Amino acid sequence: MTMRALFKSWVERYFSDEEAVVLLIVLVLGFAVVIWLGRMLAPFLTALVIAFLLQGAVNALTRRRVPHLLAVSVVFLGFIGLLLAIAFILLPLIWNQLVGLVQETPRMFAAGQQLLDNLQERYPQLVTPDQIQNWIGVAGREMTQVGQRALTLSLASLGNVLSLIIYLVLVPILVFFMLKDKDRLVGFTLSLLPQKRSLMTRIWNEMDDQIANYVRGKFIEIIIVGSVAFMTFAYFGLPYSALLAVLVGLSVLVPYIGAAVATLPVAAVAGFHFGMSDQFVYVLIAYGIIQALDGNVLVPILFSEAVNLHPVSIIVAVLFFGGVWGFWGIFFAIPLATLLKALVVAWPRGLDSREHHVAVESLSEE
After folding, report:
1. How confident is the model at residue 360 (pLDDT cuts 50, 70, 90)?
2. Model pTM greater than 0.70?
3. What are the domain boundaries of the chain?
4. Which of 256, 242, 246, 240 is nearest to 225 (CA)?
5. Half-sphere exposure of 220 (CA within 13 A, CB side)
6. For this UniProt entry, which segments traverse the membrane (predicted)?
7. Contacts of 315 (CB under 8 A, 6+ apart)
């Protein structure tokens, strides 16, 4: 079989269905808009994610016979209250601890150098003075680069104050109207799509519950893990407990990798503060228990509809979508990977597949 015949056979198998072609065009246009216009549409996309997150609370209130507008108002006011609490309570605390950590970095660096000297004295055959100097040089260069990046970021952020103000004003307004006029906006979006959209409807119905479960469950997981980590670190008297707790909470966004990455700063701060003492071991044990409970107890409870993806697929999805869309790509890596899997499973495959779907639909109508 020639290459042309092989390509023709492949096209007839996967794109002989008109709706499959339309769905492919919609997907390509959607990804292109997000990639090329994502920065411009960032407030809208952020509001869309938040509205999707809050829609479950609105639905829960309306099921209890609360009027729609009242339910939207209650949920929206709760969202605004949470934003104010973060802005006036959490962010100043994290900023103060971050400033304190930066100021204490030279002392921690000196303590690390002393630790290396002690290792060289105890194990002169394993750790040589040249190795210590190389490690110190590498650490010094890394610290210099981090400081330069922080300075560049702080200088660049001075020009983004207006953008931050726009976010703080636009995003809540967009969230309110997305919640209030959800049916009207969804109806308008559907009017732009072809009337024959059984494939799109089937894929969306498969993905809607999973995406909603994942987004809301992940948000709750961040809150619970971060809060428990903060209380644990504060109980042991670990400095920068709020900063470390936020890092541990956000680490759950990246499966497998996040927990390993968050371990390094926790162990470093505990080691420099407590030294190689029993308190240091207790902190690491407590942190390990938090991660174990999160992976084996909390995640199965929150994510009732488990995403059946191989760990390799999850890591590849995190790397790819994170590289394309940054934070939101990491956050939605698993739902997007699940969407791709649903597309592969539900995609029409030639005439036999269409006849099968027609037979199924006719039986369901009977």
Report:
1. very low
2. no
3. 18-106+156-183, 209-307
4. 246
5. 16
6. 20-38, 44-62, 69-95, 161-179, 219-238, 244-268, 280-302, 314-340
7. 255, 256, 257
